Amino acid sequence: MKNKLLFGMVILMASSSVYASVKDKKAMRIVDNNIIAEVNKVKSSCGNSALDVIVDWDSYKSMISSNDANLKKDNYKSEWVISHSGQRTVAALEAIATICASDEDYKEELAKLKNIKIKAKQDFLDSKNNFALSGNTLNIETGHKMTRSASDYMDKIKSLF
Fold first, then answer.
1. What is the signed CA dihedral for 12, 150, 129, 20, rounded to 10 degrees?
2. Statement: residue 51 has pLDDT above 50
C-alpha cells in the first residue's frame, strides 16, 4: 500500500509496508524533508512554477532486499542506503539550482521541468547515477555507496539539453 505525502508542490512517495524498519522510515522522513528544502531553492533559482519530486521508495526496498549479501559483506545498513539516496538527490537538485544561477540559457530550459522521478539502481555495487530527460520530467536512477556533490552532476545534467 502506498501513501502519497503532499508537501506544497512536492509529492514524495513513501511505502508503509511492514518491510521498512523504524530506522528506514526515519531515514526516509529525513530525506523527504531535505528534498523539500532543496526543491524550494531550485524553484527560486530556476523559476519553475511547480516541481514535483517523486521518490520510488519501493525500488530502494527491492534493491536492499535483493542485495542483502552485498550489504552484509560491507557491513552496510539499509538506512545508509536511504540516506545516501537522499544526499545524492539533494546534490542533483543543488546542481540544477547552481546551473540556473550561472547560465540563463540552461535556466530557461530547466525552468520547464515539472517532475523529477527518483528510483534506485538495483545493483548495490553500481555507484553511478543515470540521468534521462523525458519531456518535462527528469528521471534519476541513483547509484549507491558513495556520497556525491552538486559538481559531480552539473555536466551530466547540462548534457541533457
1. -40
2. yes
> Is the pLDDT at 120 greater than 60, yes or no?
yes
Q: What's the predicted TM-score (pTM) here?
A: 0.84
* Full DSSP string of 82-133: HHHHHHHHHHHHHHHHHHHHH-HHHHHHHTT--EEEEEE-S-TT----EEEE
Return all residues near 147 (Cβ < 8 A) that are at least 6 apart. Answer: 84, 87, 88, 91
Grid coordinates in use for 81?
542506503
Cα–Cα–Cα angle for 17, 88, 1, nearest 5°?
A: 15
What is the Cα–Cα distance from 88 to 146, expressed in whole angstroms? 9
CA distance 60 to 156: 23
DSSP-assigned letter for residue 146? S
Q: How do 130-134 and 137-142 pair as beta strands?
A: antiparallel
CB 95 within 8 A of CB 154: yes
